[in-house]
């Protein structure tokens, strides 16, 4: 096995001085905001590391430069630095980081579609990874290998490798489980490309089970979307609708507008399939509104096209045109060409229906040109057939036949029997009377294919056209034979339509049942609220009855002089007890206040801070916006050392008063420890929190505390960054504060996930 000994034990140069660590950290932080400066800084530091023969620092910098050049879209330099990083780590016997750098190297090859080099590198890397025997790293290498086959459209081979990954992802670690879920999704997507519908649904369900066990709502919701689509392709419309509605419910609870829009669009398509057009329009329109809000042009186009399809189904062509035109009018660079071409194609069909043949041809030719450019054979076949239909409507049979033949040629290239059947029947129908013998040959081919895939409607069409053609040729007995086949098949189709209607009605009923159940839940909630209000009223009435009863008792007592004297004596005793109680209560309140406050600054203490945050986090899924600030007085030790602890206390008190005086009524300021404060900002966005922190920073900077100027550094974070506990949220703000101090102090820094990589620097 390769040695995993840490690099610091191998080279005397590994404990770089603090400035080198700081520069490395700065270069890493600049990666997301100023990649050019990050590269220049890393190169200078790399030169120093190489001069000092600091192999560990050089390895880290090569890795950082690999990331930076990847971000800067320079694959060649990125590959060079990842390779150098891997070699340096190998020199240090640091197998884990050597493998990680090599994984980044092969990922670049994958992104750059250099599949031959990738295959060779994987064959070198995989044995090393297997020797190191880290299941997660082995899985990553195998996934990249599978991804390379997937990208080359070798889906069966990709599936073999994705399946081999599964045995390495058995650990219940969250990161490994997420990778397991992702692998199941890739298996589903690969089977989807192969049109293995059952397997597609199976693996999406496996992914959903993983994300459900992790409690990851966003991944659950998005996988439910894709699972609903997979079930729709299997014609399991009731199951698909269930999954789709579950996705919508989850998306409404989390901040994922794009995911919600996709779920609504998916549900709308399912409702269209079960002929609930009103529900379909309702959901797709809501998706359209969400896409408009987040300015997602591709989503807007897809939703608009779907609404156009519904209105086309309803034969409300004016409405359909409006929505297709929305897609057509969007800036071309913002919309997928395929989506735009679909709108153009459907507009051509509408114009053909309304006999506006000139406009129909213009739209169809534009769609056709796009599909040709993209080499989308199935769409070329369909659009060529539409163009042929337009020529036929114009009476230009020669041009119509040319495009029908082209449609058939591309249909054969797709390998889809259905596309071939449609092209064969359209071409044959035009040839009847021109070359009836060829027409019959084509129709019999169409009939054979329709029988193979059990497409009864196209079988019926073929029977009808052959009957007409045989009669035209004078073959009456043959014509009668096909007429009998036509009649028998018509009866079968009618029976199946009745069954389909029943299935659709069941789907309708299921949809209404779900709506009713949802409405019942809402009604139960209303009843619960009414019951609660009723109980509160009963308690209030009971209290009033008690007061009346007491008053009545007092009245009876006052009726007797003897009882009056006794009452007076009792009242005296009660008064003494009451005074004692008030004094005790006041003292307890003072003690509670003191117990909740820091005695020096009068801010809340650390215990109260956590009590408040723990209480807030009890309702974590319902928290929409919530931020905290960590505040640290810059160079406070120097204040104590120069002026003494008494003056230091004065500065602490002054800063605390300033912070308390300049936050909002619902905000809380707590002394976290030493010269550090924590401010809770409920119902506050990260942008608002940054503005509040900046305003406080400026006020501190301008203030004087016993003639001493000081400044403060601020770390800001938000609940939107997925902290699950108060401690996690505070740690995020603390890392941001540490970053503010590292970058020169007296500034406000918002937490970033990249800060997690630098926790170790804090202990150096």
From TrEMBL:
User: Sorted alphabetically, which Gene3D superfamilies does this protein's record hold?
Assistant: 3.30.70.270, Tetratricopeptide repeat domain (1.25.40.10)
Pfam families reported in the protein's UniProt record? GGDEF, TPR_12
Q: Spell out the residue ranges making up region: Disordered.
A: 1-20
- Answer yes or no on keyword Transmembrane helix: yes
The residue intervals holding the TPR repeats read: 381-414
Q: Which reaction does it catalyse?
A: 2 GTP = 3',3'-c-di-GMP + 2 diphosphate
Which Enzyme Commission number(s) are listed? Answer: 2.7.7.65
The keyword DNA-binding belongs to this UniProt entry's keyword annotation: no
* Alphabetical list of InterPro entries matching this protein: Diguanylate_Cyclase (IPR050469), GGDEF_dom (IPR000160), Nucleotide_cyclase (IPR029787), Rev_trsase/Diguanyl_cyclase (IPR043128), TPR-like_helical_dom_sf (IPR011990), TPR_rpt (IPR019734)
Task: Please tell me which top-level EC class this enzyme sits in.
Answer: transferase
Record domain GGDEF: where: 624-753
Query: Could you tell me the keywords of this UniProt record?
Result: Membrane, TPR repeat, Transmembrane, Transmembrane helix
Polar residues: compositionally biased ranges: 11-20
Superkingdom assignment: Bacteria
Q: Where are the transmembrane segments?
A: 558-578
UniProt xrefs under NCBIfam families: GGDEF
Name of this protein: diguanylate cyclase
Source organism of this protein record: Pseudoalteromonas carrageenovora IAM 12662
């Amino acid at each position: 096995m390769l040695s995993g000994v840490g690099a610091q034990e191998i080279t005397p140069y590994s404990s770089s001085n603090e400035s080198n660590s700081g520069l490395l950290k700065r270069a890493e932080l600049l990666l997301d905001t100023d990649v050019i400066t990050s590269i220049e800084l890393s190169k200078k530091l790399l030169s120093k590391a190489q001069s000092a023969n600091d192999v560990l620092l050089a390895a880290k910098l090569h890795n950082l430069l690999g990331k930076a050049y990847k971000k800067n879209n320079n694959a060649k330099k990125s590959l060079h630095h990842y390779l150098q990083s891997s070699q340096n780590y190998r020199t240090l016997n640091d197998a884990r980081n050597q493998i990680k750098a090599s994984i980044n190297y092969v990922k670049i090859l994958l992104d750059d579609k250099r599949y031959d080099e990738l295959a060779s590198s994987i064959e070198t890397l995989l044995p090393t990874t297997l020797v190191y025997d880290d299941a997660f790293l082995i899985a990553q290498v195998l996934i990249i290998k599978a991804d390379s086959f997937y990208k080359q459209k070798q889906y069966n081979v990709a599936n073999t490798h994705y399946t081999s990954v599964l045995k390495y992802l058995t650990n219940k670690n969250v990161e490994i489980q997420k990778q397991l879920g992702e692998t199941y999704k890739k298996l589903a997507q690969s089977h989807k490309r192969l049109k293995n519908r059952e397997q597609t649904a199976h693996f999406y369900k496996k992914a959903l089970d993983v994300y459900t066990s992790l409690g990851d709502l966003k991944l659950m919701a998005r996988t439910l979307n894709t699972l609903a689509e997979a079930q729709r392709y299997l014609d399991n419309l009731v199951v698909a609708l269930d999954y789709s509605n579950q996705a919508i419910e989850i998306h409404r609870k989390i901040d994922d507008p794009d995911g919600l829009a996709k779920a609504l669009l998916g549900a709308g398509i399912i409702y269209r399939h079960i002929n609930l057009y009103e529900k379909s329009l309702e959901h797709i329109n809501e998706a359209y509104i969400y896409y408009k809000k987040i300015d997602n042009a591709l989503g807007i186009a897809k939703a608009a096209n779907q609404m156009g399809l519904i209105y086309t189904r309803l034969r409300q062509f004016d409405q359909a045109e409006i929505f297709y035109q929305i897609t057509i009018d969007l800036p071309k660079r913002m919309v997928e060409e395929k989506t735009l071409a679909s709108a153009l194609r459907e507009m051509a069909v509408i114009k053909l229906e309304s006999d506006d043949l000139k406009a129909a041809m213009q739209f169809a030719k534009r769609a056709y040109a796009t599909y040709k450019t993209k080499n989308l054979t199935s769409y070329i076949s369909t659009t060529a057939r539409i163009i042929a239909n337009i020529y036929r409507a114009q009476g230009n049979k020669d041009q119509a036949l040319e495009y029908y033949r082209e449609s058939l040629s591309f249909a054969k290239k797709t390998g889809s029997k259905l596309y071939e059947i449609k092209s064969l029947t359209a071409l044959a129908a035009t040839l009847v009377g021109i070359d009836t013998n060829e027409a019959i040959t084509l129709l019999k081919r169409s009939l054979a294919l329709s029988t193979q895939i059990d497409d009864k409607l196209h079988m019926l069409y073929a029977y009808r056209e052959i009957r007409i053609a045989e009669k035209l040729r004078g073959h009456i007995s043959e014509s009668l034979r096909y007429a009998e086949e036509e009649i028998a098949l018509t009866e079968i189709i009618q029976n199946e339509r009745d069954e389909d209607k029943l299935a659709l009605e069941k789907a309708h009923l299921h949809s209404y049942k779900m709506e009713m159940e949802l409405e019942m839940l809402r009604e139960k909630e209303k009843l619960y609220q009414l019951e609660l209000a009723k109980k509160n009223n009963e308690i209030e009435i009971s209290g009033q009855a008690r007061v009346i009863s007491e008053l009545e008792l007092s009245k009876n007592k006052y009726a007797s002089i003897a009882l009056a004297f006794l009452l007076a004596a009792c009242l005296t005793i009660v008064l003494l007890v009451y005074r004692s109680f008030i004094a005790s209560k006041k003292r307890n309140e003072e003690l509670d206040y003191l117990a909740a406050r820091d005695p020096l600054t009068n801010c809340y203490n650390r215990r109260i801070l956590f009590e408040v945050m723990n209480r807030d986090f009890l309702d974590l899924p319902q928290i929409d916006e919530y931020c905290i600030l960590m505040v640290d007085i810059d160079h406070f030790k120097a204040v104590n050392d120069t002026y003494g602890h008494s003056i230091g206390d004065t500065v602490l008190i002054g800063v605390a008063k300033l912070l308390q005086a300049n936050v909002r009524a619902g905000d809380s300021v707590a002394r976290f420890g030493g010269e550090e404060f924590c401010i809770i900002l409920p119902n506050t966005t990260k942008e608002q929190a940054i503005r509040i922190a900046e305003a406080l920073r400026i006020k501190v900077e301008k203030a004087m505390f016993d003639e001493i100027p000081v400044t403060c550094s601020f770390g800001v974070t938000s609940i939107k960054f997925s902290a699950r506990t108060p401690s996690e949220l505070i740690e995020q703000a603390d890392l941001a504060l540490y970053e503010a101090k590292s970058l020169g102090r007296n500034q406000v820094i918002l937490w970033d996930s990249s800060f997690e990589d630098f926790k170790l620097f804090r202990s150096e």
